[in-house]
Design a protein that fits this description.
The protein is built from 4 helices and 12 strands. With about 220 residues, it is mainly β. It is globular.
């Protein structure tokens, strides 16, 4: 997955397909379960237990809170499978395999899905299994939005993921990755809709794209 991430980050510097655990600072969060946070996250996870589409805008901020990168994408999602489309790039995942399609270079990189990765393009899985990797903490409610912090149980290069979830609908509105150097990556979700995504939409078929060079890293 590291080579896939490297290639993807070269294309879209703001995107963190996975959040690696190779940090310089050790941080872990343990303790009792926060019942309020668990309730909010359970409702949010249920919103991804269906065929949906949404838009995501990904932004990066430096330690001085200055925006340094921005990219938008469209996502089709269903039970851990997704198809992300943005300028010059398509990302397919059928739950076990990931295809990163670089339209400009005419290359397709293929890798297995790592069970250990914290994948921000798979929000349903993140929400449903957060307790394996994080301790959830309810922070507050502000303007009809529940604020929840996910603190990593193991060493990461960030100290928390902050979720902003609509109190009424349970939809994730914003996800912020807070790093130790005070920089941030922000993912804003919008246009969340039920859809009729078909299974084939989450798989890349090389036979239909003979002009693409296939790089199989499995």
């Amino acid at each position: 997955m590291k080579r896939l991430l490297s290639a993807f980050m070269w294309m879209l510097p703001v995107l963190a397909l996975t959040l690696p655990a190779n940090a310089q600072i050790t941080h872990s969060a343990n303790g009792s379960v926060d019942a309020k946070a668990a309730e909010v996250l359970k409702k949010a996870a249920s919103r991804f237990d269906q065929n949906v589409t949404f838009s995501v805008t990904m932004k990066a901020f430096d330690s001085n809170k200055k925006e340094i990168q921005r990219q938008s994408a469209q996502v089709k999602y269903n039970h851990g499978r997704y198809h992300l489309s943005t300028t010059g790039m398509d990302l397919y995942c059928d739950g076990t395999t990931v295809w990163m399609v670089n339209q400009t270079a005419k290359e397709v990189t293929v890798e297995n899905v790592s069970k250990e990765d914290v994948n921000l393009f798979n929000p349903g899985r993140l929400l449903a299994t957060y307790d394996k990797h994080f301790r959830a903490k309810y922070i507050r409610t502000e303007s009809d939005t529940d604020v929840i912090d996910l603190q990593p149980r193991a060493t990461r290069n960030y100290h928390k993921i902050r979720l902003r979830i609509d109190t009424k609908t349970g939809l994730v509105k914003r996800l912020e990755v807070h790093k130790y150097d005070s920089s941030r990556e922000v993912y804003e979700l919008s246009d969340f809709k039920r859809a009729s995504n078909k299974e084939a939409e989450f798989t890349f078929d090389p036979a239909k794209h003979p002009d693409m060079e296939l790089i199989d890293m499995r």
